[in-house]
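Run log, item B.
One chain of 389 residues. Sequence copied directly from the ordering sheet:
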Amino acid sequence: MSQTKSAPGRLAGEIPYEGLVPCRAGLEDLVAQEMRDLGITVDRVGRRAVFFQSNKAGIYRMNMALRTGLNVLIPIRTFNARNYDMLYYQSRKTNWHKLFSVDKTIRIDVNGGSNTLNHSEYVVHRVKDGIVDTFRKLCDGVRPSINKRNPDVHVVVHLDETEVTLALDTSGAPLFKRGYRTRHGGAPLKEDLAAAILMLSEWNGNQPLLDPMCGSGTFLFEGWMIATRRAPNLDRCFAFQSHFDYDPALHEAEREKLRKAEMVTQPNLRLSGYERDAETQQIAREILVENFPEAAIHIEKRDFREPAPRTSGHFVVTNPPYGHRLGSPAQAEELHRDLGEFLKKRCPDSTAAVFSANRPALKSLDVQPDKVWTLYNGALEGRLLRFTV
């Protein structure tokens, strides 16, 4: 007989909830510190995930305020499944009807790995069968529908060989989808990674921020929210709003606390960006007007290599094209070399943070970093260099 156990949060109705926040490799400690700052109890820091205990208010707070986490997951059931029939049987034994209503649409995703349950699509299929058959039995033959693009409920199946954990994703869409970037230029940096680069580099608004290759402005917008303590997902929708235990009054109370924590005025806060492509610069300006009308952000159509006044005492952060999707490796090295010259000649007495997945090109900066981090942009391993100019 396979052993099963229910997670202490959802099915048993207990508090605190036990869960995890997945994140990009290299950001685990940063996510853990964010969670502690939000009053969450961190149990342990794992590989690409941070495990926690929290009450329901903390679940809502993390979803609205975390900058570098990807989702907030609550495991609901863990069991052993040596084959797909056992996977179906155990999935059907889960009390899905106590978690959400039959009229909600669902999506199922798989992570982890297993030598026996090694066909991810069939794993999804069998878990889906278990869910819909549970509802059919208890709801007069009615079953929830599948919606892969915009589901109400997101179920995550984690495989660790024969151990299977079913979890509810309380976030829904990943938390890096803040909602402000509906359009972007080529090869954009994800919002969570941009925020992490600023936070790791220890920029907090005390220095003017400059991105000489700002693209659609992600560093500038994330920087503004960090400096003003604005929660990045304050007003978006979450999957937890489709769960039976959703508490709208508690959600609004937590949202109001985060609003009150914002810094309304930052008189010396200045953020600037250069973007040479007219269409991309226009996208950045439209995002600024639509989503950050009060922000002291200036986005200029300019190639940073063009003559311009010196900007001393700035914090310069940028993510140059790597040569993978934009331009060739040789062009990337030349661009990094020009960036190094720009920093030395035009940005004296400044601090710089440069993230790139092109290590040969990074050497072309010809700088001595005081701190280096290994971070990942998708599957690409990159380096974040911080140095004084």
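Observations after the first pass:
- The first helix runs from residue 28 to 37.
- The first strand starts at residue 4 and ends at 5.
Flagged for discussion on Thursday.
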